[in-house]
Amino acid sequence: PNHYDPIDFKDWWVDSSKTPKMNATMVSLVRNGELQDMLSSIKEFEDSFNSKYHYDWVFLNDEEFTPRFIKAVTEAVSGNAKFGLVPKEHWSYPDFIDQEKAAQTRVDMANIIYGGSESYRFMCRYQSGFFWRHPLMLDYDWYWRVEPSTRYPCNIPEDLFKHMNDNQKIYGFTQTLHEYQETIPSLFDSVLNFTNEHPEYIPHKNFANFVSEDGGESYNGCHYWSNFEVANMKLWRSKQYRQFFDFLDHRGGFFYERHGDAPVHSVFASIFLPFEQIEYLNIGYYHIPFWNLPFEVESNHVSDEEVLEKSKQKYVDLNCQVDPREDFTMDGFSCGSLYFGLNKLKSLGIVSE
Ligand code: GDP
Ligand code: MN
């Protein structure tokens, strides 16, 4: 009865050679108290990337930004800085949520990271379902999420927004991790319920085996770490994602569990996008406590010697000032080796030990 109806992105692409920059913005959800940490991210990000392009930068907050914050940040960015207040109805309980049950959950989950926090849950729900609806964000298609206290210590040699557009990519990540299952016990059950209701939304060749290694029985916890994202907001603005978000929201997992926006974005992108629309953006990046360092990535036919040699050269070319042994990509807590395996790629770092 339901005819095939996956996300239709065929008219999302532009001829980027006709425009100096893409319809894109940096976006940071941030608190006034994080001013210094925001400035340190901006400084390194501008040096490595944005001083070449001057993309706009939208700052969002659930409280009014202080004049001090606005002044300091406006001076630090090379594009237009815009400051937005998150509307109360996007940062509070929807009426279908039982607030006593939510409060009890915070008590029960107090020993899990952020499990006792109410604001963290509003934040994750906001990043899942609302930032792309903010009036300031409606002017743009593409966004790059930048958090306070993140690092960009290597040159970023191309416009990643153009890279995404020109290669017809929709969702770009730089690190992957396993989620703590205690924060998302019912997430995958919700996903399976949704896919049963809407099998017509699933494209023929998706990337579901990145999030489930047992053929869709269970979630392996793998997710793109969403403190870094370069993506097209048409993905989140699609009918398919809006319905998915509403479905999860009504099941209550943002409040009765502690669903993070990273697994929410990740399971959606992995299941509802064709696999080739997800892109590993291999830049130098740090979010506490993990580094991604930009080693060479090649098809697994290429010899180890060649991959190693190219990695060393790349590290020099990009002027990376970080010990290459810090790279987290192939760590067991990362999902890097699964990602590389599924894509028949290899990356070897630059020190063979
Ligand atoms: P973690 O990366 O999971 O440890 O979470 P963070 O504390 O880094 O929060 C994720 C992002 O949301 C960061 O950009 C924070 O600055 C921002 N954030 C978290 N909580 C709040 C909040 O209550 N208000 C505002 N305005 N921003 C927040
Ligand atoms: Mn963070």
UniProtKB/TrEMBL annotation:
Molecular-function annotations in GO: alpha-1,2-mannosyltransferase activity
Membrane topology: Single-pass type II membrane protein
Subcellular localization, as worded in the UniProt entry: Membrane
Keywords associated with the record: Glycosyltransferase, Membrane, Signal-anchor, Transferase, Transmembrane, Transmembrane helix
GO CC terms of this entry: Golgi apparatus; membrane
GO term, biological process aspect, one: protein O-linked glycosylation
Main localisation: membrane
Similarity section: Belongs to the glycosyltransferase 15 family.
Protein name (database record): Glycosyl transferase
Residues of the full protein shown: 86 to 438 of 457
